[in-house]
């Protein structure tokens, strides 16, 4: 049986997991790929560092150029993360006629258009299943399994750290800061958790999913991004009382006006399956016109779940080594010359429902003033709850659920409500999605 040689850029958590899976499942992988797959060389930062994976027979180097320029390597697997160095190495690998497999969502979301164009010129593949939702094969599902559908929308819990924090807040009544600290100690969140809790990581992934779903170029800079750091324990509790759960959702929708791309905290009805995805798990809900809603669930991170996706991509690449480049599955699902230039809607033009929480003086006429403002902007109320004042403040907590309305109208309403003398502080606003149609 012939052998295809692979080079690894990085032998950290995912790189080590990839090596383990390739070794442990070598026989099955060979039967699937039609040849043996062998790691010939791996680049690491510290050659002398002890490793948990077996590197016998593999050349270990501290110079990543050795990997992308290795004459026998057919497939380069990029697992170092980051942007600048990763982009440079990937572009060099492509220039050298090597196929690329990557788990780097930031690289694909921000530089994918350029990378794919160069790959097409050189007749090589760039595979990136592991860049979104870890071990869940969501890229392949949308790009190939749902290729016969017009994708109407998709919604995903695609950051495990944020989902872990919100789950702990709901189940154990803990504050955001307390749970974040634990997430860092458990290794779920970095020392600087900004990418996770402020939605940047999820926005990278949503950019990729939307491009594949709708046949548009990658446009990370146009994703509306809002984190979960302002979510309070009382919001989590009130949402439960109203029959909802708060999830940090990435949502892309194909509308008549354009494409919605947004990441933000979202109230979802408790009865929805995706509302019951807890802890560090990920899930993506995709609605196609023919198939209806489909849900994909699994581990969104971790050494071997991510390695599962990396190795699957390596097998796919190896299978196509002898095929005509013109007959391969396009990187972004649609033929490169058929990508759409449909506009990405600014958040002000997005229509959704809302949860509002405010602190109001407990006296006659206050609610009338608030409802008058909402009514003047064609915002109708679906539910209203007023909690009795606590302590000496004599401020009542008012919670409202609205029907769907344009964001720009809600922005005006909130500004006018906050200007009322009877309202103290800011109005808390969380968007609501029913994900039913």
CATH superfamily of the largest domain: NAD(P)-binding Rossmann-like Domain
Under CATH, the topology of the largest domain can be stated as Rossmann fold
- What is the domain tally? 3
What is the number of beta strands?
Answer: 17
Q: In percent terms, what proportion of residues is strand?
A: 25-35%
User: What is the class of the largest domain in the CATH system?
Assistant: Alpha Beta
Average pLDDT level: 94
Question: How would you describe this protein?
Answer:
- By secondary structure, the protein is α/β, with parallel strands linked by helices.
- The chain has 3 domains: 169 residues, 3-Layer(aba) Sandwich (Rossmann fold); 162 residues, Dihydrodipicolinate Reductase, domain 2, CATH 3.30.360; 84 residues, ACT domain (Alpha-Beta Plaits, 2-Layer Sandwich), CATH 3.30.70.260.
- The protein is 35% helix and 26% strand.
- The chain contains 14 helices and 17 strands.
Which key features would you list for this structure?
6-stranded parallel sheet, 437 residues, single chain, alpha/beta, 17 strands, 11-stranded mixed sheet, 35% helix, Rossmann fold, Alpha-Beta Plaits, Dihydrodipicolinate Reductase, domain 2
What's the short version?
By secondary structure, this protein is an alpha/beta fold.
Secondary structure topology:
Blueprint: E1 3-9, H1 13-24, H2 26-33, E2 36-43, E3 59-61, H3 65-68, E4 73-78, H4 84-95, E5 99-102, H5 105-122, E6 126-127, H6 138-145, E7 151-157, H7 160-172, H8 176-185, H9 194-197, H10 200-214, E8 224-225, H11 233-241, E9 244-254, E10 259-269, E11 281-288, E12 292-299, H12 303-319, E13 351-361, H13 366-376, E14 381-387, E15 395-402, E16 405-406, H14 407-418, E17 423-432
Parallel strand pairs: 1-2, 1-4, 2-3, 4-5, 5-6, 8-10, 10-17
Antiparallel strand pairs: 7-9, 7-11, 9-10, 11-12, 13-15, 13-16, 13-17, 14-15
Helix pairs in contact: 1-12, 4-5, 5-10, 7-8, 13-14
